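for the recovery benchmark. tokens below, seq after
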């Protein structure tokens, strides 16, 4: 029964999170900066309400101190898993450069791409609405930017800059 309540609480909180815009678009001079906003940070930290409530329920109602301790120990694990993404993931776009940053351990997707180097782009559109990119560069390299919330928020600005430079973009739907 406790597992079912926990699962229902997790799903309800995830649904609640989906009701809010969690990304910000700031324009500083000619730089467009996309990242998580304060609402995203608060909702990410607020996710800890679920294990805290479950720990309280187990401690007070079920008199299960071991189960409560396990749920309380899960809070730092949630913080380690979620906070780096909320604090570090960003996309910056200028008329000359595209910068993509991810949190560890996903740093292999960090990229500084000069717009003049891009010969073509493939926009990957996933069923859940997230978007990613694969850029083909003049030297033959491919730079892959995996689908994520921040890159999806930056999609219109990236598409406008690619269109302004007459860089061909192929849209590829990804079904799973």
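predicted aa per position
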């Amino acid at each position: 029964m406790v597992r079912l309540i926990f699962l229902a609480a997790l799903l309800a909180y995830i649904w609640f999170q989906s009701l809010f815009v969690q990304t910000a678009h700031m324009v500083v001079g000619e730089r467009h900066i996309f990242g998580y906003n304060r609402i995203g940070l608060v909702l990410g930290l607020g996710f800890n309400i679920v294990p805290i409530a479950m720990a309280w329920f187990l401690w007070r109602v079920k008199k299960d101190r071991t189960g409560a301790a396990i749920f309380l120990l899960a809070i730092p694990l949630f913080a380690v898993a979620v906070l780096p993404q909320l604090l570090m993931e960003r996309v910056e776009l200028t008329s000359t450069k595209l910068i993509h940053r991810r949190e560890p351990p996903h740093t292999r997707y960090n990229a500084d791409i000069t717009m003049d180097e891009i010969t073509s782009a493939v926009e990957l559109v996933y069923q859940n609405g997230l978007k990613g990119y694969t850029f083909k560069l003049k030297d033959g390299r491919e730079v892959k930017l995996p689908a994520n919330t921040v890159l999806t928020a930056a999609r219109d600005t990236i598409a406008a800059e690619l269109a302004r430079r007459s860089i061909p973009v192929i849209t590829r739907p990804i079904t799973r």
